[in-house]
């Protein structure tokens, strides 16, 4: 956390934003769809990372299960936004990157522009994601059941 005494507020560090924004991208990928603007935001985050941040980040991304997504995002940022290798937080993974880029192009932000059957919360969407992000997809149904129950229990309180 960085505190700006002059302006009177605190904000997260760039390293924190690098992880949090990737978690946010992951949520959009699994639940809805990623817009290209999410990747442009991420481009500016990785451009602002220090060498120390990048060194720490690799271990944290692996610990949080975000490394495969980071590799896909780095491939897209390298190909589409011309991100130089020295700014990358993981080695680009072309296979995962192409899959992710296709998801972005076919669905757009929040998946609103999908023309196929892989709409939000559909079995076909989860089946398409399963080979790439199996752990997350397999937890979708238990999570949704738990969350729905929790919401019902806390509806009036």
Sheet with most strands: strand arrangement: 1-2
- How many domains? 1
Order of helices and strands: EEHHHHHHH
The counted number of beta strands is 2
- Average the pLDDT over all residues and give the rounded result: 88
Weakly predicted, low-confidence segments: none
Radius of gyration of CA atoms, rounded to a whole number: 17 Å
The span between the termini is 32 Å
**Biggest β-sheet, characterized?**
2 strands, antiparallel
Write a structural description.
This protein is mainly α. It has one domain (2-153). Helix content is 63%, strand content 4%. It contains 7 helices and 2 strands. The chain has a two-stranded antiparallel sheet with strand order 1-2. Strand 1 (2-4) and strand 2 (9-11) form a beta hairpin. Helix 1 packs antiparallel against helix 2, helix 1 (14-31) runs parallel beside helix 3 and helix 4 crosses helix 5. The radius of gyration is 17 Å and the shape is globular. It starts with a strand and ends with a helix.
Describe how the helices and strands are arranged.
Blueprint: E1 2-4, E2 9-11, H1 14-31, H2 36-48, H3 51-63, H4 67-80, H5 94-107, H6 123-129, H7 134-153
Antiparallel strand pairs: 1-2
Helix pairs in contact: 1-2, 1-3, 4-5
Keywords, separated by commas or semicolons:
two-stranded antiparallel ribbon; 157 residues; 7 helices; mainly alpha; 2 strands; globular; 4% strand; 63% helix
TL;DR of this structure?
The chain is mainly α and 157 residues long. Helix content is 63%, strand content 4%. It has one domain (2-153).
